[in-house]
Amino acid sequence: MKRLFQRAAVAAAFALVGFTAAAQTPPNVLIVGQIAEPQSLDPHAVTATNDFRILVNLYDGLVRYKDGTLEVEPALAESWTISDDGKTYTFKLREGVTFHDGSAFDATAVKFNFDRMLKEDHPFHDTGPFPLSFNFASIDAVNVIDDNTVEFQLKEAFAPFLSNLAYPTGLIVSPAAVEEHGQEFGRHPSGTGPFKFAEWQSNQLVAAERNEDYWDGAPALEAVVFRPITDSNTRVAEMLAGGIDVMVEVPPDNLASFKSDANFSVTEQAGPHVWFSILNTKEGPFADKRVRQAANYAVNKETLVNDVLQGTATVAAGPIPPAFNWVESSVEPYPYDPEKAKALLAEAGVENPELTFYVTEGGSGMLNPVVMGAAIQADLQAVGFDVSIESYEWNTFLGRVNAGLEGQADMAEMAWMTNDPDTVPYLTLRTDAQPENGGFNSGYYSNPEVDKLLDQARTSTDQAERGRLYGDVQQIVHDDAPWLFVANWKQNAVTTAAVQGFKLQPSFLLHLKDVSK
Amino acid sequence: MPSYILKRLLSMIPVLFGLSVIVFLVMAMIPGDPAIAILGAYATPENVARINSDLGLDKPLVQQYFIWIGNVLQGDFGRSFALNRPVLDEVLERFRATLVLAGVALVLCSVIGLVAGVVSAVRQFGWVDKVITFVVLAGISVPSFWLGLILILLFAVKWRLLPASGMYAVYGGGDLKDLLLHLILPAFTLAVVAAGVIARLTRAAMLEVLRQDFIRTARAKGLPERSVIYRHAFRAALVSVIPVIGIQAGFVLGGAVYIETVFQWPGVGAMLVKAISTRDILLVQGGVLVVAGSYVFFNLIADVVQTMLDPRIRT
User: Fold this and answer.
1) A-chain residues within 8 Å CB-CB of B31?
2) What is the pLDDT of residue B313?
3) pLDDT tens, position by position, A362-416
4) I want to staple B310 with a disulfide (CB 3.0 to 4.6 A). Which of A31, A163, A422, B239 is the partner?
């Protein structure tokens, strides 16, 4: 005991005297400041963008998003064919690829991955739960044709299928590692990606090393380390102190000072995100389309994105984010026009409609919901609405909003991030997606034409035709105004000036293979 | 004495049992469930039901509790929903970090608090007393997370003397020196408030003791002033200060929540906050039981020390 104390005392004295710069990141190792510790490194078991940022560096999918776009290109699959009815996808797999644990990547491994997620009687289905497996609910069967050919049979034609395969839920894990580690696989991940998992220290770091044998060329960095730093002020301080090389999700307040400092470089990238307020189209003032449009004219979105969000977002025009640049749409956002809003209210015969507005205190993709809520309230009051805000903690909020707004509220904040223009409208704007049918159409919007267009767009395998169909959806929904359209978020990151080749992707994923330092 | 300690240890059992029931009920009563937390925006009733049945949460509440307590009695604290790993692994790993931080902070605040209290009592109304009283009051009043951030900005960002956050350096660390460097700021921040409370109490206790007859006797005997203060008065004052240090141990463990978040210390406090927000009931249970257990344990130690110091309580 005494010796221990002496050693401690000596070490403390030594520490206080003999040292200079505490935080200097080592050469050729990239340290990334993340917003939270990952839940798991099993790509099929997680839902958070925060976790996806790590996973896409450890694993590959059959396909991936082409650099800088949301278009799909080959990855572990070299090529594929789609049957004319859009129900059979046949993938030719890349040969000679091995998982980090040494086992071979082949058609059997692909089948294992999807069966584990989708089949309740699969021996390793209990290594879940797999919350996003419904992305692949359209799969009827996965068939091994030969070692390097795998066939997916879909129950019905489903155009977003390829895009969903490129999403992290479609990343391919090593069956051998799942068999070895069972429920602990999420802490002992093994994939085919550019970096190999090295270690995970709880709430301190996740480290991954260069995969020398990577099929697409070994990465430049020797290793990457992901550090969870939940408090955004601490994350900024750590960046300023030189303890991390990259930080994601910079608070808007700090962005300007990083931009003006030559030691740092700021990267911004618009993504498929939309921030809006659901309007209750079933009852109350918002049952009238003119009142919904009035709300859209009444709110000054420019002020919201420039002042509240300090330029970290752009104004949204409709339900489909502009990041899907292949969607043909020329719809412009509702301009800020309080006079027009008042005129529409008068036309609808409602002078001072009372509204209950659900606001959340935080949550995934919700940006700055409390201040945004207050600003929206103020703008609505200015044209005659009488708005009372009710705010809830995120999980409570979701529980209330997802159940449907009927009998509870007239409007509610919401935000979505997706990988295909199908997802959000299909889940939130279709007649059949109303809460009693298990969807997220909490405002009960219903337009048979939109329903028809969405069904067509999801079964068409012609990308150009889909682009036109979603453009029509954007136009009609914009006019019907079942939401108050507010913002499309731009994700951001700061790196030290020494970091080269760093890019953010519209998919919100973080590929570090080509980064150097 | 051993029978007293045994009795106290046994009395922990109903406390912890009652606590587990309360935590279970509170977690069940707050709206939202783990499935919603896991699914986020994708929480359709259908998906929620699927996840709940995977997690065994579709069973009645009472049944869930008895399954849990039955497993705990066999040493199985279950799996965390959000982290998908055994609760015990996570809690013990985290608790080790909290103990290091809280232990050092407790020693620090006791030493600072006692010295400041004694000095300011001996120099009552002198300028030293006034300065100490002012600093102590400031220490109690400053929000600890704010103080923590200021210290990070000064020592890590401006002067680059100490690391900003974490428990070990990401590279080349891992030894005792590295740990101590990372400990200085969070331990000091955590100690400041508790030290203030101990200092004020020590001052009051010392002033009270110094007015008593046996001190006058000791001085009259011609004992040196040092000996009067440290051997007689301080020892007597300690009897009423020790239980407060026991309570401060609880404060340091609980107060570590903010500090752990600000300094990204991988402790049990930050884990509990996250677990509550994701409705990770088994992880909350495990964490609360460990923290509460150690709180009761620290108080037991304080009581035992107090008994040893004060012969009047010994019987």
Assistant:
1) 395-396, 399-400
2) 65
3) 887 888 899 999 999 999 999 999 999 999 988 888 888 988 999 999 999 999 9
4) B239
DSSP A503: -
- Whether A6 has a pLDDT exceeding 60, the answer reads no
A145 vs B: CB within 8 A: no
> CA of B58, closest CA in chain A: separation in Å?
14
Cα A231 to Cα A237, A256, B143: the distances in Å are 10, 19, 16
Query: What is the ipTM score, two decimals?
Result: 0.84
Beta strands A77-82 and A205-210 are unpaired
Tokens of B58: 């579709």
Closest residue of chain B to A439, computed from CA coordinates: B44
**What single letter denotes the amino acid at residue A270?**
A
Cα angle: B256, vertex B257, B262; to 5 degrees = 90
Q: Which residues of A touch B164 (CB under 8 A)?
A: 23, 234, 237-238, 241, 243
Chain centroid to CA B292: 10
Most distant CA pair in chain A, distance: 86
A307-326 pLDDT, tens digit each: 999 999 999 999 999 999 88
Highest mean pLDDT pick, A321-330, A420-429, A446-455, B199-208: A446-455
Reported as a single tens digit per residue, the pLDDT across B248-295 is 888 788 767 888 889 999 988 888 888 888 888 889 989 988 888 888
Phi, psi of A89, deg, nearest 5: -110, 125
- Complete DSSP assignment for B9-70: HHHHHHHHHHHHHHHHHHHHHSSS-HHHHHHGGG--HHHHHHHHHHHTTTS-HHHHHHHHHH
HSE (side-chain half, CA atoms, 13 Å) at B223: 16
CA distances from A205 to A198, A219, A429, A442, B157 (A): 10, 20, 40, 39, 21
A241, A414, A415 ranked by CB distance to B164: nearest: A241
Whether A456 shows a pLDDT value over 60: the answer reads yes
What CA–CA distance (Å, rounded) separates A272 from A277?
A: 17
User: Structural domains in chain B?
Assistant: 2-87 (no CATH), 88-314 (1.10.3720.10)
Integer Cα distance of A311 and A337 in angstroms: 21
Coil, helix or strand for A372?
helix
Please identify which residue in the block is written with the tokens 């150690």: B294
Q: Please tell me the CATH code under which domain A59-179 is placed.
A: 3.90.76.10
Among B107, B264, B273, B274, the residue to mutate for chain A (most A Cβ within 10 A): B264
On whether any CB of chain B is under 8 Å from the CB of A416, the answer is: yes
Identify the residue among B27, B42, B47, B151 best suited for mutation to test binding to A, counting A beta carbons within 10 A and taking the highest.
Answer: B42
pLDDT digits (tens, 9 = 90+) for B94-117: 999 999 999 999 999 999 999 999
A187 neighbourhood in chain B, CB within 8 Å: 85
For residue A413, the chain B residues in CB contact (below 8 A) are none
Q: Report the distance separating Cα A351 and Cα B38, nearest Å.
A: 42
Full-model pTM: 0.86
List Cβ neighbours of A124 (8 Å cut-off, separation of 6 or more).
A112, A116, A178, A179, A182
- B125 — contact with chain A (CB < 8 Å)? no
Is A467 in CB contact (< 8 Å) with chain B?
A: no
Confidence band (pLDDT; 50, 70, 90) for A478? Answer: very high
Fold of A273-490: Dipeptide-binding Protein; domain 3 (3.10.105)
- The secondary structure element, H or E, covering residue A208 is strand A205-210
Structural domain boundaries of chain A? 1-56+193-245+498-517, 59-179, 273-490
Query: Which helix H or strand E contains A469, and what residues bound it?
Result: helix A463-480
- Alpha carbon distance B4, B8 (integer Å): 6
Residues of B in contact with A52 (CB under 8 A): none
CATH of A1-56+193-245+498-517, one of 3.40.50.300, 3.40.190.10, 3.90.550.10, 3.40.640.10: 3.40.190.10
